[in-house]
Amino acid sequence: MTSTPTGRRVTIDGLDSIAFDRTFRAGIEDVWAAVTESDRLARWIGEWTGDPSTGSVDFRMLYEGDEHQAEVLTVQECQAPRRLVLISRVPGEELVWHMTLTLVEHEGATTLTFTQSVGDDPAMAGGVGPGWDYYLDRLVAAETGGDPASVDFGDYHPVHQQHYLDMFS
Fold it and tell me: Which SUPFAM superfamilies does the UniProt entry name for this protein (predicted)?
């Protein structure tokens, strides 16, 4: 399969970020569940544990090998089912990711716009961009009856790394 980079450069709250859109033939509540419920997330990216009403959960990526350390996701804003703003931190590391998920439903289709900051180092875009194209395509596969495992990371990285680096050069 040949993938196409879909991200675009945006500035969110003064942070250089990459935004991605995916549209689903599904209601907003269903798409919201696909990106917030741990069992639905586990089909395409990872799982969270904890109590989101406390303002944070532990999140573990499931498709990046066993060595991937759990991240702490802090909920900055939640307006279910339309907007979720998160900050991700790996304990003991300085890197902080700012992520925003916005959902809009129109005529039976819901568009998810996902953004993630690239941090203080624009070179991070070379991993962030291909990584989110990969994971969001896994989400599409999971939600349309496909097999997320059929989405091959090698079709995204390093193939599209330079495309995303060029956005921030």
Answer: Bet v1-like (SSF55961)
* Residues of the domain holding 39: 8-167
Look up residue 70 and give its DSSP letter.
Answer: P
Residue type, 34: A
Q: Over the stretch 64-109, which tens digit does the pLDDT of each residue have?
A: 876 678 899 999 999 999 999 999 998 888 889 999 999 999 999 9
Rounded Cα gap, residues 91 and 158, in angstroms: 27
Query: What is the DSSP code (8-state) at residue 108?
Result: T
How far is residue 60's CA from residue 85's CA, in Å, rounded to a whole number? 18
Strands 46-49 and 56-61: antiparallel
Domain CATH code at residue 96: 3.30.530.20
pLDDT band at 1 (very low <50, low <70, confident <90, very high): low
pTM of this prediction exceeds 0.70: yes
